[in-house]
Design a protein that fits this description.
heterodimer; A: about 450 residues; alpha/beta; 18 strands; about 20% strand; globular; B: about 350 residues; five-stranded parallel sheet; 9 strands; about 35% helix; disordered N terminus
Chain lengths: ~450, ~350
């Protein structure tokens, strides 16, 4: 890679880590940030290649702490190659690979293989997450020390809750020395009792078994108390209920070392989307109902939960947004609701879908970008998610006025399981730069991926 | 995608697409009673009257659906519903083919989608489906041109059962509006309960249900009346079964499955029988000429006592007989579009 010099000029640079929000120029050289130049009108940058970002937002490349790459083991759904391309298209320059692959990433051997292939094939940065338990079976601790040495940024059995409270306690306690968070998928399966969507009036009307909010809240509460007991780091993935938020607030106020993430879909969709009409509640349930692209775990919740989650993200109770990108193939989604796999394809719509909340004043653009950049970087304790001098030149250039209709056939992802199919979003990532190289650029050329 | 509905009568009150012309044969479905207006339901019941007459003839056959192919595809066990649909189709002269999941390639792992696509390739007119997953017929309707008839999907709906229940009640007590209907049994897991509540409410009846608190959705409360936001506006949730049955015109008992005891929803079926079972003491609280109904199969001694099940007020066998007539009306309405659905005696349709 040559000592390539880029100058991204005239954009609204939002770098929450540095408290920057102003029209300025970002200078990049040799894959690193050189500096941010304010009051640059009229300045020319000699041998820098200029990217004109006027009218755009220039942000650090987004950092995702929760991505399912399906590789190794389910490569028909997604691979490291397609998943990182999808990430780039969504403005993400760092993603974190959840270990529920096949084989599970519960040993250095598997993690090292994934990292090796990610380094050569991946289009953006991939960080590993190790399993909490061997095979994610929830019986014995995975070799967390060995996994830490391989570079994992945390531990998770995601997909599976650690149902055994003792094992969860030991995992939290053991991780203290490693300084890495335990990321437990909080779901009491006994309370969930086979439910396939959120319990409530919609589930009752559709005759689908409902999961009460308590299934999540009960285990979140348990985990918070165990984190308090063991003085360890807990990170709550895909938080989704009001009850969980109440418990989280109490825990944070009493000094528990806990952080929490929320997904784009839990911020923007609710259980009424299962009627298949983009959130409209029909007088008559039609053939478009039981839309399996809405099936996800935790399930899409009620309107009230969604409002509470937005407020919690806005005021910082929820620290970050994480995608929980979960690609699934047609075999797993073109079927009855009961048979469908859980998961939504998120990377390429994540930013745009949440940006809609900025438009209606529910969250500020700065806070939104912070929750995708500085926030995750702080949890990772890594020099990422910012345009500070010397940091990797990872940049997302966003056109806030760009309206586009979600068309999964245009996705870089191998899979198309998005409930936002056909929905118009405003605000779009138009260019993504990773280590100083453009890894995604929205093309106006007909035929190219839009 | 608009939801197609049944066109009945002259299609004057059809809610979705009109029938273009008889030769165009647009396919419509019966997925749930939500789809039908009160007058469309009335029309179907009127049609069923004519069908009932045909079932009473010596030679039970009309050529109304001659040359049509109807497939019944059942992914769950059934006696009465399957035989009922089969007989309905055959009396109307259609070719009826029965597919049971266990005997089909589904047991070899063929997906529901491919099963439907395979059948679709065979030019069928109607697909009668029973499936353990709620929403399965809605899913299927996206992949076939045939008219899809929901014969029971998961815990969601069983529209033809409710139609025959309405038909039975109408035949005995006339206008359903204003009548008091008591439904006693597992509401949470029963598609019959759900469809019957909708059906009777739509025809203007006052519906009350009674069951253990574990068998209603968590957001419902015993001793209250539901509002519009629940989708079951006006539904009364009785505090106990005596309150539900008191002065009722119709008492409908629903089967309580052994699984409910296994999953902790009721301590024992014995306790259920004691506290919710419809026995003669409880029937005595209802009106003197109240009807006793049960969709079947019955577990005598649990949700219903034997003497009540076979007593003077029981119309259980009539329900079964009416089932054939009602299903004939439904199949006729779906497979012979553009024509009047009334088949009077002596006519050849």
């Amino acid at each position: 890679m040559a000592a390539r010099k880029l100058a991204i000029t005239g954009g609204r640079v939002i770098d929450p880590a540095q408290g920057i929000d102003m029209i300025s120029d970002v200078l990049i050289s040799n894959g690193k940030i050189v500096e941010i130049v304010a009051d640059s009108s009229g300045e020319s940058y000699g041998d820098y290649e200029v990217i004109d970002a006027s009218g755009k937002i220039v942000a650090p490349g987004f950092v995702d702490l929760h991505t399912h790459l399906r590789d190794p083991g389910q490569e028909w759904k997604e691979t490291i190659i397609t998943g990182t391309r999808a990430a780039a298209r969504g403005g993400f320059t760092t993603i974190s690979a959840m270990p529920n692959t096949d084989p599970v990433q519960d040993s250095a051997a598997v993690v090292d293989d994934v990292m090796r292939r990610a380094a050569t094939d991946g289009v953006v940065r991939v960080l590993p997450i190790g399993a909490i338990s061997v095979g994610q079976k929830g019986k014995e601790l995975a070799p967390m020390g060995e996994l830490a040495d391989s570079g994992v940024i945390g531990f998770s059995d995601d997909g599976n809750p650690v149902a055994d409270a003792n094992l969860m306690r030991q995992a939290l306690s053991y991780s203290v020395e490693l300084g890495l968070p335990i990321i437990n998928h909080a779901e009491d399966k006994k309370i969930a009792a086979g439910g396939v969507m959120s319990a409530g009036a919609v589930a009752t009307r559709l005759g689908l078994a409902g999961v009460p909010a308590a299934a999540e809240t009960v285990m979140v509460t348990r985990d918070l108390h165990l984190a308090d007991l063991t003085k360890s780091r807990l990170h709550i993935p895909h938080i989704s209920t009001m009850g969980s938020l109440v418990a989280l607030r109490t825990a944070k106020e009493s000094g528990v070392d806990v952080t929490a993430e929320v997904t784009p879909h839990h911020l923007t969709l609710n259980d009424e989307w299962i009627f298949g009409l983009h959130g409209e509640v029909p007088a008559i349930v039609g053939s478009e109902a039981y839309d399996t692209n809405t099936k996800v775990n935790p399930p899409l919740r009620s309107r009230a939960d969604v409002e509470a989650l937005i407020e919690a993200l806005s005021d910082g109770l929820i620290d970050i947004i994480a995608t929980d990108h979960a690609p699934h193939s047609a075999t797993d989604k073109v079927c009855t609701y009961n048979d469908a796999a859980h998961g939504i394809n998120v990377l390429e719509t994540a930013f745009s879908s949440v940006f809609g909340l900025v438009d209606v004043g529910k969250i500020s653009a700065v806070r939104l970008i912070e929750s995708l950049t500085a926030g995750p970087a702080e949890i990772l304790r890594k020099d990422l998610g910012s345009l500070k001098k010397g940091f990797s030149a990872d940049v997302a250039i966003i056109d806030p006025g760009n309206k586009w209709v979600v068309d999964p056939t245009q996705f870089e992802s191998k899979s198309v399981n998005s409930p936002l199919t056909g929905v118009e979003l405003a605000g779009r990532v138009v260019q993504t730069i990773y280590q100083g190289e453009t890894v995604f650029e929205l093309n106006a050329v007909a035929g190219a991926k839009q | 995608m608009t939801n197609p509905t049944i066109t009945v009568g002259n299609g004057a009150e059809a809610e979705a697409t009109d029938v273009a012309d008889a030769t165009a044969s647009p396919r419509h479905h019966l997925l749930d009673l939500d789809d039908l207006s009160a007058s469309e339901i009335s029309d179907l019941l009127d049609s069923a009257e004519g069908m009932l007459e045909i079932t009473g003839r010596d030679v039970r056959k009309t050529p109304a659906l001659r040359g049509k192919t109807i497939i019944t595809m059942f992914f769950e066990n059934s006696t009465r519903t399957r035989v009922s649909f089969e007989q309905a189709g055959k009396i109307l002269g259609a070719d009826v083919i029965n597919v049971t999941a266990s005997a089909s390639s589904v047991s070899k792992g063929e997906s529901l989608l491919n099963t439907v696509k395979t059948l679709q390739a065979m030019q069928i007119d109607a697909l009668v489906v029973r499936h353990p997953h709620s929403g399965a017929p809605y899913f299927i309707s996206n992949y076939t041109d045939a008219a899809v008839v929901n014969a029971g999907d998961g815990t969601h709906a069983h529209p033809t059962q409710s139609l025959l229940d309405l038909f039975t009640v109408r035949n005995h007590i006339g206008d359903i509006a204003g009548k008091k209907i008591a439904i006693v049994g597992d509401v949470l897991y029963s598609r019959v309960a759900r469809s019957s509540i909708i059906a009777f409410q739509k025809m203007g009846a006052e519906v009350t249900i009674s069951c253990p608190n574990t068998l209603i959705p968590d957001e419902w409360q015993l001793g209250t009346v539901l509002d519009e936001s629940t989708g079951f506006d006006g539904l009364k949730l009785a505090k106990n079964v005596d309150e539900a049955v008191d002065s009722a015109d119709v008492v409908m008992a629903l089967r309580i499955q052994q699984e409910r005891q296994d999953s902790g929803h009721v301590p024992t079926l014995r306790e259920y029988a004691e506290r919710w079972g419809i026995n003669s003491e409880r029937m005595a609280l209802a009106n003197d000429d109240a009807l006793l109904m049960h969709p079947g199969p019955m577990t005598e001694g649990v949700e219903i006592s034997s003497d009540v099940a076979h007593g003077a007020q029981s119309v259980v066998e009539e329900q079964v007989r009416n089932g054939v007539a009602v299903r004939m009306a439904v199949l006729y309405a779906l497979c012979a579009p553009g024509k009047s659905t009334r088949v009077s005696s002596g006519d050849e349709a």
